[in-house]
Amino acid sequence: xxxxxxxxxxxxxxxxxxxxxxxxxxxxxxxxxxxxxxxxxxxxxxxxxxxxxxxxxxxxxxxxxxxxxxxxxxxxxxxxxxxxxxxxxxxxxxxxxxxxxxxxxxxxxxx
Length: 111
Fold this sequence. Notes:
The protein has helices at residues 2-14, 19-25, 30-37, 45-54, 59-64, 72-109. It is an all-alpha fold. The chain folds into 2 domains: 2-64, lambda repressor-like DNA-binding domains (434 Repressor (Amino-terminal Domain), Orthogonal Bundle); 71-111. α2 (19-25) packs across α3 (30-37). 5% of the residues are buried. The model has no long low-confidence stretch (mean pLDDT 85).
């Protein structure tokens, strides 16, 4: 956790935020926030998630700072791909149903 608390401090400083401003964003007192950076308070997953979200980061990147492993665009692209694949599957089902109707129509009209 030593690395994580250091990462939190470095990230906050990189964003040009004081402890007081970051504490305000996190809806906590500056004193409570300071205790987290000093390692006097355990860092909860809720805190990590809120911290990352406030800075438009991913929690994994806070932990692995300064390396960046997760790009928010990656999640968006994966979600977009999932949505497109789902739409394709729906279209394939619709086409299969239409093919059955056409086959039935042809069968009825060729007799």
